Amino acid sequence: MADPLNRIQKIASHLDPAKPRKFKVALLGAAGGIGQPLSMLLKMSPYVSDLALYDVANTPGVAADVSHMSTAARVRGYLGPDQLGAALAGAALVIIPAGVPRKPGMTRDDLFNINAGIVRGLAEGVARHCPGAWVAIISNPVNSTVPIAAEVLQKAGVLNPAKLFGVTTLDVVRAEAFVGELTGTDPRDVHVPVVGGHAGVTILPLLSQARPPLPAGMSAEARKALMGRIQDAGTEVVQAKAGAGSATLSMAYAAARFADSCLRAMAGEGPVAEYAYIRHPPRLGSGASAAVAADLPYFSSPVRLGRLGVEEVLPLGPLDAMEAENFAAMKAELLGSIQKGVEFAAKGP
Ligand code: NAI
């Protein structure tokens, strides 16, 4: 069966010289473990004209440091809520890794009490200062923080679900790395769809669709173990860092890759294929299975990005028995996390 993502990647790109090819990107939480290496990677992007580095601490130092890199993007640091508006004004893409990370023994949901308020405040800033921007949320729990941002933007009358994303690229990156290792393939040539949400069992790698395929003789137990490793890979890093935080370097790599996809799509170099945790209004539901669209208003899906954001939700493709079982088993948790976010936003500050 034709792989829709590969099919789209093969479509020739169409460049329009009249349209902008470089954009202002605002990074909120820029001085943190993810924010610092991500600042560096964004400064290296040929699609970034201006890089606004915002945080509540330490941005002058990060901005001074990154600004000395001999690449074209103009860098400015913004410190504290008084400067949030200036950081956001004119931004085409806002990336949000602001908030606390996990420590050993914590789930992503344990971060909710602190990060929910941070994301709400920053989404209010987006609504006020750059309501047309694409917004990519990294702050955990992504399953809840994206619905929070959506509610805030909706309340302000500026929600465009085609431009709001939870960044789940790290799950895809991990699946590519692990399947590459297992099959002896360069991970850049590996393709593994990862859908669902971004926490534990809600992370649903579709290993049956992996390219190259998993070894034919691989046992069901080994496949299950691989699925479990992808789902728990974040915890592997949290434990190895032993209290010093969660994934930062691999996350910065993943976020830079996702940002690159967004900026290429904005520049008209689309269509660009990606995975992202998005809201599924009927308008976006063409490719998603009816069950997904009906039961789960937010779901990480394969999408086609164009100038307008998500232009098409691509089909999930066939799920094997193990994947279908996992899908059924995770729905309640994902829905609960979505509702928690929606209710938090409804309560207001
Ligand atoms: P960190 O603690 O090193 O950095 C967070 C930064 O956010 C700090 O510099 C802090 O000053 C800043 N911050 C706090 N409140 C802020 C506000 N109101 N406005 C702007 N900045 C603010 O944490 P790290 O390791 O960078 O992780 C950040 C978030 O990303 C965490 O929530 C973590 O769970 C999440 N994460 C998400 C992943 C994903 O796949 N989506 C993967 C790894 C982490």
Automatic annotation (TrEMBL):
Which family does the entry's similarity section mention? Belongs to the LDH/MDH superfamily. MDH type 1 family.
Can you name this protein? Answer: Malate dehydrogenase
Its UniProt entry gives the catalysed reaction(s) as: (S)-malate + NAD(+) = oxaloacetate + NADH + H(+)
Q: Which GO terms describe its biological process?
A: glyoxylate cycle; malate metabolic process; tricarboxylic acid cycle
Alphabetical UniProt keywords: Glyoxylate bypass, NAD, Oxidoreductase, Peroxisome, Tricarboxylic acid cycle
Q: Which Pfam families match?
A: Ldh_1_C, Ldh_1_N
- In its UniProt entry, the species of origin is given as Chlamydomonas schloesseri
Positions in coiled-coil regions: none
What Gene Ontology molecular function terms does this protein carry?
A: L-malate dehydrogenase (NAD+) activity
UniProt-annotated binding residues for NAD(+): G29, A30, A31, G32, G33, I34, G35, D55, N115, I138, S139, N140, M251
List of residues binding substrate: R102, R108, N140, R174
> What PANTHER family does the annotation carry?
MALATE AND LACTATE DEHYDROGENASE (PTHR11540), MALATE DEHYDROGENASE 1, PEROXISOMAL (PTHR11540:SF71)
| Enzyme active site | H198
